[in-house]
Amino acid sequence: MSLFDDHFASKNAASARAWAMDDEKKKKERSHEPAAPKMGICDKCHKEALVRSYRTRQTDVGNGAASFGTVIKHFCEECAPKSRRERDAEVPQLDKKQVRNLMRSAKKGLL
Ligand SMILES: [Zn+2]
């Protein structure tokens, strides 16, 4: 039954290839995502927590020589450095017109 065997083998090989491609795709998709939190030790508070990895630029001056490098640090949610955008989002920036309107309505409320 070599015909059947060949057919079976090629079908198997095809599905194996499909699996491999699927795996490659998953790997690629994963690498595009921001680092997912995982259990680890926070580099700042040294507690075991869900940590995310952050790339930080580091300048070390040691032995009279400066070295520059990118270091991967793991921080828990509490110690995580906040991005500029997040910091700005916490304090809503009002433009001058909005501030004036706010002041006006506040005065109205007081009078
Ligand atoms: Zn921490």
Describe this structure in words.
It is a single chain. With 111 residues, the chain is α+β, with helices and mostly antiparallel strands. The chain has two domains: 1-33; 34-110, no CATH class. It has helices at 2-32, 84-90, 96-110, and strands at 38-41, 48-62, 65-76. The longest helix has 31 residues, at 2-32. The protein is flat and about 95 Å long. 4% of the residues are buried. The site of zinc ion has 8 residues, from strand 3.
Straight-line N-to-C gap: 98 Å
Calculate Rg over CA atoms.
28 Å
Q: Give the tally of structural domains.
A: 2
Estimate the global geometry from the Cα principal axes.
flat
In N-to-C order, the SSE pattern is: HEEEHH
Uncertain spans: none
Number of strands: 3
Brief sketch in words of this structure:
This protein is of the alpha+beta class and 111 residues long.
Highlighted features:
3-stranded antiparallel β-sheet; 3 helices; 111 residues; single chain; flat; alpha+beta; binds zinc ion
Please specify the SSE layout and strand pairing:
Layout lengths: L1 H31 L5 E4 L6 E15 L2 E12 L7 H7 L5 H15 L1
Antiparallel strand pairs: 1-2, 2-3
The structure holds zinc ion.
